[in-house]
Amino acid sequence: MRSPTFRKMAAPVDLELKKAFSELQVKMIDTQQKVKLADLQIEQLTHVQKHANLTHAEISTLGDNTRMYEGVGRMFILQSKDDITQQLKVKQKTAEEKIKELEQKKVYLERSVKEAEDNIREMLLSRRAQ
Question: Which residues pair with 76 in a beta bridge?
Fold first, then answer.
């Protein structure tokens, strides 16, 4: 049977741990949502990158005098092969850069959650040592 003084001393520790766990839970949920969003964006950018790559591959087989049109809204604009090729290269490069940024963001988010978990573990170990 525990003494009444033990309960009074244990209560602040429990409240502090409870607060730390609830903050960790909020942080983890927020981070999971951000990681899912980053994954979706990476998937979309990968699709854009593949589409631009395939289009570039198809265009490269055509002759230089072939008339090419770029779709803009509901109309098509006559463009040179070089212009379209350049636009596709820019699309691919932009998508690749954004994918790298998103991957770095995911690593950062996962690292921050791990650090928060480690801090709570240290707090638990220090409480047990007392």
Answer: 71
- Top pLDDT among 68 and 1 is at 68
**Domain that residue 63 falls in:** 18-129
pLDDT band at 4 (very low <50, low <70, confident <90, very high): low
pLDDT per position as a tens digit, 96-111:
999 999 999 999 998 9
Tell me which residue of 8, 30, 14, 58 sits closest to 116, measured CA to CA: 30
- CB 72 within 8 Å of CB 79: no
Listed in sequence order, the residues at least 6 apart from 119 whose beta carbon sits closer than 8 Å to its beta carbon are 20
The label of the residue with tokens 């265009």 reads 59
Question: How many domains does the chain divide into?
Answer: 1
* Helix (H) or strand (E) segment spanning residue 69: strand 68-72
